[in-house]
Structure formats: C-alpha cells, structure tokens
Amino acid sequence: MPLYSHSRLSTFEQCPLKFKFRYIDKVETEGAEGVEAFVGKRVHETLEKLYKDLQMQKLNSLPALLKFLNDEWKKNWNDEIIIVKQDYSPELYLKLAEKFVIDYYHRYKPFNHSRTIAVENRVVIKLDEKGEYLLQGYIDRLGYVDPGVYEIHDYKTNSSLPLQEYLDEDRQLALYQLAVKEGYKDAQRIRLIWHFLAFDKELESTRTDEQLEQLKAETLALIKQIEATTEFPAKVSKLCDWCEFRPICPEWKHLYALEDKEPEEYLEDDGVKLVNKYAKVTEKKRKLMTELDNELEDLKERIIIFAEKIGVNVIFGSDNKVRITITDTVKLPYKNTEERQELNELLKKLGKWEEVAELDTFALAKIIKNKGWPQQLLGQLKRFIKIEGSYRVYLGRIKEE
Questions:
Q1: E strand spans, 145-258
Q2: pLDDT digits 0-9 by tens, 366-385
Q3: CA–CA separation, 299 vs 312, rounded Å?
Q4: Mind listing the domains of the chain with CATH numbers?
Q5: Higher pLDDT, 21 or 32
Q6: Is the per-residue pLDDT at 135 higher than 50?
Q7: CA separation (Å) from 199 to 69, 163, 195, 203, 303?
Q8: Is the preceding omega at residue 110 within 30 degrees of 0, hence cis?
Q9: How many Cβ atoms are within 10 Å of 121's Cβ, its own excluded?
Q10: What is the largest CA-CA distance in the chain?
C-alpha cells in the first residue's frame, strides 16, 4: 500500500488523469515548475531558516533574511519556470516574495508568541486500527504555547483569502492535528493557524475529536476509492494553466503542439482546418435554421388568416392538409401589481380565496375557462380577466383519412 499524502489526495480530486501521470505512470517533467510554486518554496525556506536559527538562540535581522531569500532565488531560478501571467516579470515576483517576508517579520518580531518544537516536521497519520493505511505530511512549524496547547502553523503564499468556513473544512492541517494528538499525549487543545502572507493576515481553526474521527473515515474512503479506480479521466479547470502535464494531456496536447508554429503553419494544421470548417458549417446551420423557423412562422400566420377569411378549420394541399385549432387562454394580472392586489381582496370578499390557494393563477384560470363558479360571481371578476386566442397548426397527410 503506497504512503499517501494530502497533496496526493488533492491531486486525484483535482484531476484523476494528473494523478495517474504523477503517481502511477511516474511521468517525469523538466522545467515545468510554475513561478507561484517557486515563490512559495523560497519564502518557506526563508521562514524555515528564521525559526531554525531561533531554536539555536540566533535572531536573524531582516536584511539578513532578505539576503538569504535573494541568494536562494538566484541559485534556483531558471528560464524554464512557467510564468502564466505574461505581464509580470520575474523581478516583480521576487519583490512579492520579499514583501511576504518583510510583512511577516514586522508582524511577529521578536517571534516569542510560542516555543517552536519543530520546523518542516514530518508526521505520519495512521488512518485505521491495523495501520495498513498511512498518510504522511510536513508541518511548516509546530509550536507549544501553554501546558496542553499546541499550534500547527502553515504559510500560504497564494493570492486568494479563503472564507472561514473553508478553513473549518480544510483537510490538510486537520490531518496534522491527528498526528500531533497522537504524538503528544498532553495535547488538550491544538490550534490550526494559517498565515496568508499576501494579506499579512492570520486565520485560525480547530477540530473536535468527533470531527477528527469523521475526517479519518472520509480520508480512508477516498483512498479506497483511488485504489479501486481503473479509469482516470482528465478534469478541465482553471488549474490546468499551472499543470506540468499539459504537453501530454489529451485536453491540451494539440494546443501545446501549436504554440510554436508560425501563423501560416498554424492555419495549415489539419486539426485547425477541421475545427475552423466545423465552426463555419455549424454557424451556417444555425443561420439556416433561424431562416426556416422565421419562414414557418410567417406561413403559419398566413394560413391562420386564410382559414379565418373563408371560415374553415382545415386547409387542403396536394398531398397534405393543415388543421388549425384555437384555444382560449385566460390572462390574469401579474404579481406585485395594484390590479393583482385588488383581485386578491375581491376573491377574499367573495369567499373564494381558499379555492384558488392564495391565488393559484392556474386554478383560477381553469375555473374561469370551465365556468366553475356562478355566472354572477364570474361577472365580478370580469375586469381582471383577458381572454386571448392561442392558435396551433398541425400538418398531416390527406391519405391518412
């Protein structure tokens, strides 16, 4: 049984095909890292250094941390890193990373809110009694505050700030809470803390024992679902823009193959020509159908006028005939109008309100059409009623008769 992780589970939920490429086929990709992930790694490394040095009683200055960040940036940067937002340069992303560190440093200095137990701490969570299903993870920072109170810290560099209800349902840190609860028997309260660095904001959540047991059951069920899966379809989403498997994914492979082609070569691609032709034919069909629908409506109107003119219900052609029927439709005042309110009051006064269920217009229309109430009573409703004729035209073969 493979050792699972929150990332592994999330990949399957995000896109089963991506899961297959990464964990089953083990497809290797080169230089496919996105700049957002690159920023996250460099910031995590910098904060990891901050707290590891603090454990050795060394407090780094802000300039020293920024120098470390810049050195790691230069050491690891390469031209293959993907920047989806072409308007933003690598230098802007570096400034962004620096801002994350600067804001965090100013907010928490001298970093004595809790005693750091571990940084980038690997934990293993047992999901079943036999220990057959295990899940591993890495806690950015584990802290100890007061007797029985622990903190799980997680640094986020993404550009969106989630709602509290999302954090209260977050799986990753809650799974880490299971590991801390198991590993530290004195843990009475475990705080889950997210640092959203782009907003210089700290958000917190926690879980009850009942919620943790439910989470274990749900996570175990998801793993069993993955183990039983034989088909791994692609799931297209906005996350595809950052996927390293786009060049081989059937949803994007053709587009990726077109990226480096010149305009003339692009237009000569067989796939491009086929899709362009298909789009043209589809548009031609739409216009033709619209023209035919309009022509039919015009013919219907002319048939109805002709039938009324000579006083018939059926018109005959060479092999076909057309039957015209007319149905009276009862029109009542619209909701939230003064006329509708007057009608409501009149029905209540006449003692008929309950029969139309708080003015069920369908029920009332049926009563009026079928003359289900006395004529005198219906006469009092006359000013609220409009009768409109609705024509229908049916085409049939003459020989059928």
A1: 149-156, 189-196, 201-205
A2: 787 788 888 888 788 777 77
A3: 17
A4: 31-111 (no CATH), 113-229 (3.90.320.10), 313-400 (no CATH)
A5: 21
A6: yes
A7: 19, 13, 9, 11, 69
A8: yes
A9: 18
A10: 105
